[in-house]
Design brief:
This protein has 24 helices and 33 strands. The protein is of the alpha/beta class. The strands form 11 sheets. Strands 14-13-15-16-17-22-23-24 form an 8-stranded mixed sheet, sandwiched between helices. The protein starts with a helix and ends with a helix.
Length: 897
Amino acid sequence: MSLFSWLFTLWPCSTPSLLLLGFMGRQLGLRVGLQVVQTVTCSRLGTSIDQGLFQDGDVVIGGLFSLYYKPPAIDHDFTQLPDYKSCTGLENLPLQYIYAMVFALEEINHSATLLPGVKLGYHIHDSCAIPLWALQATLSLVGGDSTSCNSAAQLKYSAGYGAGIGQRRGDLPVPLIIGGDSSVTAKILSRILGPLSMSYTASCPCLSDRRQFPNFFRTMPSDIYQARAVAHLAIHFNWTWIGAVVANNDYGLMAIKIFQEETQGAGVCLAFVETLQRENIMSDARRAALTIQASTARVILIFTWYTDVRELFLQLTKINVTDRQFLASEAWSTSGDLLQNPSTSKVASGVLGVAIRSSPIPGFENYLRNLNPFRRPDERFLREFWEKMFACSPGATPFSSYTTSPSHGSRLLQKTSLPLCNGTESLERVQNLFTDTSQLRVTYNVYLAVYAAAHALHNLLSCPDSNNPPGNNSCSYPKHIKPIEVLQYLNNLNFTTPQGEMFYFQGADIPAKYDLVNWQNTPKGQLKLVLVGRVDGFDLHLNESAIQWSTGSSQVPLSVCSESCRPGTRMATRKGEPVCCFDCIPCAEGEISNKTDSPHCERCPSEFWSNDEQTACIPRQLDFLSFNETLGITLTTVAVSGATVTTAVFVVFLYYRQTPMVRANNSELSFLLLLSLKLCFLCSLVFIGRPSVWACRFQQAAFGISFVLCVSCLKVKTIVVLAAFRSARPGAEALMKWFGPGQQRGSVCLFTCIQVRVIICIIWLSLSPPVPQPDFDIPGLKVTLKCAMASVVGFSLVLGYIGLLACTSLLLAFLARKLPDNFNEAKLITFSMLIFCAVWVAFVPAYVSSPGKYAVAVEIFAILASSYGLLFCIFAPKCFIILLRPEKNTKKHLMAR
């Protein structure tokens, strides 16, 4: 059902097309003027004159307040006209707002400087916090309060800004309404009605748009400021996991949207968002309470009306949820009803909230305490409050409640058993929200709104020349005030309040100022409101030491989905969960994170490595195979032992050089082989110790020359063995001439010189020699200082040449292994070369896969293993015969077949 159709149910006349045309024209911004005089018969539901506070005056200002909080049951079947039913549950604080407006108007009427000679009147209605009810009451304000119009009544309507809707002849216009307690109501009133509206609590940022709401003003700051203030509180206290309960209207939904925008990128996430609908507050509050109980969020943000919070706290009390820290919006952060409610004190303790700034109103407390229905018999709201407070009827006819007439919807009196008041009742000693003026917040907003309206009217009605005709822009008369004229003066308003503050509008708004309040426990077990900071625009000023948290201590509560990641770890978001929910992954070796909640780990420079905690990069320690460590000592011992044994064998062969065993195996090559083996053992020592430029060059040269010399000797020995046996055949006597002692020495020198001159001396060591260099590619705190092969090709050629000689020697020895001789040296060479080749074939993968200094150890092991293999396989059998079996060391035995 459309809003206009609903309006016709409130104002059913015989010519509804007339009203529809006017509403559509105003809604679309059309400036159509329509003068219609028609005889009509009409009535409006629930608009009796006894349902508000009324005072006539030269200029009448409207008032719209949510005095009752229990809405009536609404019949949603709009095929029939609904019977109006009054709201119930009178609230003390809104009643204070009403009398703040009355007090301000009476104060202005007694002023000699503000609007002198002009009496301000008021028409104040209750809206029950329902937008459609508020619109109904507003129609009564701008259309008159008579319940019917007879056939003689004449309706005059204008769709421009010139007059109000439904204004009858003889009725004073209402140029401005103090009201629109919610943003929804304010938007409806501003879009549809001609008179200006000035809200004291509507805070939706959308209302600041002057293109959509040109006739709207407010003494309440925009929600942008309080939502940002709450967001800054969450960021300041590192609350990254927050639950939210908001009203299901512009107030709550817009606030949570601004909160999310402000905290975007700051690591704050919403664990849940629950909405509360006033019509279903019982079930919604129960659902929200269960959600709060189940959530891991310890900080809960609540943007809704205080009556909704009251029901939510009751539900939380029932399920014993008392360990949550609540962030309050201004709508309930100063609610005395919640502060003084003992049943919710455990739940509400420690609330931290944004509050409308407070300011005193001189004389207002005495004014409230002197109110008495006997002196104000026509003020129904005061009479009902008196009955509620003193349980007696102040009237001549006892009554305690109001009912609704089924025919006209007017509130009627119903007799009850309440006794008559004796007239001695007084508010002097009454302590409740109505009489409490210690912190006037919304009340002060109402007070400011009235003074803003009065100053705008004063400027409008101030005529430098009293002879100016009505309608001149320089002045006007009370009977001819138009809302558009008031609008012009409100836009340029600038005055000093009775409290000495400068007041002006910035568009529709006033400069934003808030208080930051905290609900703290008192020794009596009650809660009190403590000022702990303030908000000035977007600036936040907070006294943290003055805050008492929900835990009862000064320790800031923790509300996170995941615990903070300590330095040395990084955050890893969980799949499908908000960014605030993450796991802490330790940084890999060589990477660090030096701050809490680091999103990633940073790799250390190559010269540095991470410490044990992965929090800092420290210089890497140079490491090399040292003579002082166990591995170095072991390899040194083995190498020296090998050189010693080789020397001993050399001595034995030298001592027995005239024996057949030594002479039969080419003693000259044997001595040369022993010398090369000794060099092989000793060259391994060059690999141990701190590498230097010359050590790196010498170790590879010594290694290559020693083994080439060694293998060359074996190869020549094998060739000599083959040549000797071949020369024993008929016709081959001249073969040994080519393998005499000179040729043998020449062959060894030739094979060795190829390695020394061509590869090492000329090419490798001259063009691209090995240099000492830290091996940063190997992870770890210790970096190996090794001789880096600047040319892998050169090193490969060295090993390849040695391997070529070894393979040819193995092949020749294998061919000569079965030559007829009692002691065939070719067999020994075959075994030794098999061991030699096996060691160096295994060396290549072992060397490549070994890290750091262990690669050097592998090379040394290969040198020693191959050297020991040659030494023992070739010379151990000979020494055995020479030393232990001298009887076999004869030419006859050696030549035997």
